[in-house]
Amino acid sequence: MDYIILCVIILYITIIANKIDLLQKRITHMNSNLIKIAKQIGVPKDPLDDELKIIMEKDGKIKAIKKCREVTGFGLKEAKDYVDNLK
C-alpha cells in the first residue's frame, strides 16, 4: 500500500515539474516576442543595454551575462540570449 502512495506522489511531482518546465519555456518565448515587438515600435532602450555593452567591451561576454543575471533575475540561458541580442 505504501508503494502505491509513493508511486502516485512521484508521478504527481513529475507531472508538476513537467508543467513548470513548459511554463518557463512559454514565458521565455513570450519575452523574446515582446522584445522583438518593442524594437519594432521603437520603445526606448533600457539603460541596462548600454551598461552591458560597455561591460562586454571591457571585461567580456561572461561578465556581461553575470551582470544581466544580477540585475534582471534571468536564468543563465535567458541572460545569455539577452546579451547575444545586444550585438
UniProtKB/TrEMBL annotation:
Highest rank taxon of the organism: Bacteria
InterPro entries the UniProt entry points to: Ribosomal_bL12_C (IPR013823), Ribosomal_bL12_C/ClpS-like (IPR014719)
Native organism: Clostridium estertheticum
Gene3D superfamilies: 3.30.1390.10
Listed GO CC annotations: ribosome
Keyword annotations: Ribonucleoprotein, Ribosomal protein
Span of domain Large ribosomal subunit protein bL12 C-terminal: 58-85
Single GO molecular function: structural constituent of ribosome
Name of this protein: 50S ribosomal protein L7/L12
Biological processes annotated in GO: translation
